[in-house]
Write a structure and sequence with these properties.
Blueprint lengths: L1 H5 L1 H16 L3 H37 L3 H26 L1 H10 L3 H30 L9 H14 L3 H16 L4 H23 L1 H6 L12 H25 L13 H33 L3 H37 L3 H28 L1 H8 L3 H33 L4 H25 L4 H26 L8
Helix pairs in contact: 2-14, 3-4, 3-9, 3-11, 3-13, 3-14, 4-6, 4-7, 4-8, 4-11, 4-12, 4-13, 5-6, 5-8, 5-13, 6-8, 6-12, 7-11, 8-11, 9-11, 12-13, 12-17, 12-18, 13-14, 13-16, 14-16, 15-16, 16-18, 17-18
Length: 478
């Protein structure tokens, strides 16, 4: 399985031309689709990269405090998002509903779906906050050292107030992307990053940061890892305000009753979104379990894992953005009743995602030490992270294919299969293999990452085959 992972590009290349021939589309149509998808993907991918950069900055700042704080930030972030992504998945259930309505020229239905997402954010978000609180109280039971558990809880408590606003942000972003209005999304993430850099430094280091910058002290305490959490919460609120203002400016043509609760639309979004949420929980959950496994090795392995995961997540955000754009293009084509355009949009998206991830794989393979040094200055952690980044180079392409494939299937309203593929790939293959390699065969931290690589490859193959099969004919609207 590991050997086949490294040969994955040769498997993918023949599939795209054969699918292309099956559609019977002309070259000009494929070029138009590529331009349209690229124009939509670039700002979305940029916004996802900017979103990840918020976490990279926080991680880099906390990394200067020490490896204990760095590991706690990674563990706290994993715990927070493993729960939060369930609500995020429900919001992403709006993707096919809104995009297909937009493709059919039903703007009022799209706006009504957005408002159901806003209500769902509160309905789903509050119980999820309670789950995060309960989960953070069980860290010692999972084998986490008490000092690391205390710091992790401090980070989680600082992030908790951002949970519901984050879900509202996802709903707003779904609508704006489907409408092709990406400028507010980009503006929001740029503004958040401008705010985040100084805010994170000041909250983490307190007056020490001010004095080092030649500024007078203000009596600010050094919050450490919790400061990074509060900075992330503030940045989430900034982004919600920007997107909400963009929606307010475009509300003149909206249906007067769009804000009322619509049980039918809400149920549809829930049925589509719940499998996405469960898929994301499965995907994030396996990384959270790997975090726990790393913590049971040693603090250096946990810190190195966080460094490598931060960098791999940064490159992953580009195919996630391409996947979001592919979801929109597939959904719009379905709304227009264009079966050929539906297939074309998915294949072009997969091609773009694969091309980018080949480039990122080369970067990880050629410059692992330099990349790790961006996150931490600890030589021991850098050395451990290099081995993990070499494994990450192998699974980059699989990661990109499964991200775009999930987006294409989401636009088609096919969300259950993606969930099942992720469960099978990660929990029946990837995680067991990683645990055996690490704790039975003594492969150390890289063993867990080889397991992740195998799981991602299985998921990528399954999603690619699924889209090529269902897009061979017309796909009904959700």
């Amino acid at each position: 399985m590991l050997e086949s992972t490294s040969r994955r590009p040769s498997f993918l290349v023949p599939q795209i031309p054969s699918a292309t021939a099956a559609t019977g589309g002309n070259v000009a149509a494929w070029r138009r689709e590529a331009r349209a998808l690229l124009a939509l993907s670039l700002p979305i991918a940029f916004s996802h990269l900017g979103q990840t950069l918020l976490g990279v900055v926080d991680t880099a700042v906390v990394g200067r405090v020490g490896e204990l704080h760095l590991g706690a930030a990674g563990l706290g972030n994993a715990l927070f998002f493993t729960v939060t992504v369930l609500g995020m998945g429900v919001m992403l259930g709006l993707d096919p509903v809104i995009a297909q309505a937009m493709g059919a020229g039903e703007a009022n239905k799209a706006r009504r779906a957005l408002w159901q997402g806003v209500w769902l954010a509160g309905l789903v978000g509050v119980p999820l906050m309670l789950v995060v609180l309960l989960a953070s109280g069980t860290l010692e039971l999972m084998g986490i050292a008490p000092d690391s558990a205390v710091l992790t809880r401090a980070y989680v408590m600082a992030r908790l107030p951002s949970l519901v606003p984050f879900l509202v942000f996802v709903a707003l972003r779904c609508y704006l992307q489907a409408a092709g209005t990406t400028r507010p999304v980009v503006t929001a993430v740029v503004l958040a990053n401008i705010v985040n850099v100084p805010l994170s430094i000041v909250l983490v280091f307190g007056d020490e940061a001010l004095t080092r910058a030649g500024l007078p002290p203000l009596g600010l305490p050094a919050l450490g890892v919790a400061g990074a959490g509060w900075a992330s919460t503030a940045c989430t609120l900034v982004q919600v305000v920007v997107l909400a203002d963009a929606m307010r400016r475009s509300s003149s043509a909206a249906e007067p009753n769009a804000r009322q609760v619509d049980a039918v639309v809400m149920k549809r979004a829930l049925l589509l979104g719940l499998p996405i949420g469960l898929q994301l929980v499965a995907e994030f959950g396996v990384f959270a379990l790997v975090n726990v496994a790393m913590a049971n090795l040693d603090s250096t392995s946990l810190a190195a894992h966080q460094v490598a995961l931060t960098l791999a997540s940064a490159t992953f955000m580009v195919p996630v953005g391409i996947g979001a754009a592919t979801s929109v293009r597939v959904g719009r084509a379905i709304g227009q009743g264009d079966a050929t355009g539906t297939r074309r949009a998915g294949i072009v998206g997969l091609g773009l995602g694969t091309t980018f991830m080949i480039g990122s794989a080369l970067c990880f393979w050629l410059f692992p030490e330099s990349l790790a040094a961006i996150i931490t200055s600890d030589a021991k952690v850098i050395d451990a992270a290099v081995g993990l980044l070499l494994v990450a180079a192998v699974f980059q392409i699989s990661d990109g294919v499964q991200a775009v494939g999930a987006g294409a299937l989401r636009g088609a309203g096919d969300t259950r299969f993606t969930f099942l593929a992720n469960v099978a790939g990660h929990y029946l293959i990837g995680l067991p293999l990683g645990l055996v390699l690490t704790f039975v065969l003594a492969a150390g931290a890289p063993g867990l990452w080889w397991g992740l690589s195998a799981g991602l490859t299985v998921v990528a193959i399954a999603l690619l085959r699924r889209f090529l099969r269902i897009s061979a004919g017309a796909i009904a609207r959700v």
